[in-house]
Amino acid sequence: MSIARLVQNFSQRRALLASRDTRAIEALTGTLQKLGLGVELMEAGESGLDLGGAGADPARDILFLDGDLNMGATSSPEAVLPAIPVIGLVGVEAPSRLRTLVTAGATAFLPKPIYGGSVYSALYLGVNEHTRRARLQADVDELEARRRLRRHVIRAVVDLMAARGIDDEAAYQIIRREAMRERLGLETYCERLALQRAGSSHVDTASPTLRAAAD
């Protein structure tokens, strides 16, 4: 896994403020604008706050979410990484308020009352930690997708072993070379073989290129 470059400059980004705390909004707005961010206030709809849904830009937007809000349907049983970074504003340090922010996907916290000197640190941690978690999740999703396709690799190896009377290593290397020649991942190539084989009972008739490689 490649290491993501850490973000240090937040100018040209947009801060979405979800809070009814006038003092917090004023303090945040002034500091964020000095750091080059645009600032917009968010209002909760009937179904709660939209955490990075319609209109949100993952490459640009950052949500400052006040834990003192009554967010209603915003919370869910399990923490889910939202599309955009979330920085939690902490006023009342009750476990239920903190749990709500964690469930909403907060990757950094900013205590109230807000002081200008603490905003940049929260931005730095919140944005870069969100990026790190998103990359990890993407890697996990990719590995899970490959795991699901592994059964096609096993089937292709077994079929080729039976068709050519070769061992598993030889069959695997043949299939691997064919996948590389087709510029496909091994799992994707074997999935394609499985689809070709759907109307056939033998790997040789299902894949002419694989038959040629085995000769």
Description:
The modification 4-aspartylphosphate is found at residue 66. Residues 14-127 form the Response regulatory domain. Helix 3 (116-164) packs across helix 4, helix 4 packs across helix 5 and helix 4 packs across helix 7. It contains seven helices and five strands. Mean pLDDT is 82; it is low at 202-206 and 211-215. The chain has two domains: 14-114, Rossmann fold; 144-214, Arc Repressor Mutant, subunit A, CATH 1.10.10. By secondary structure, the chain is an alpha/beta fold. Helices cover 50% and strands 12% of the residues. The longest helix is centred in the middle third of the chain and has 49 residues, at 116-164. It has helices at 22-34, 95-103, 116-164, 168-181, 186-197, 203-206, 208-214, and strands at 14-18, 38-41, 61-66, 86-90, 106-111.
CATH class of the largest domain: Alpha Beta
Identify the CATH architecture of the largest domain.
Answer: 3-Layer(aba) Sandwich
Helix percentage? 40-55%
CATH superfamily of the largest domain: Response regulator
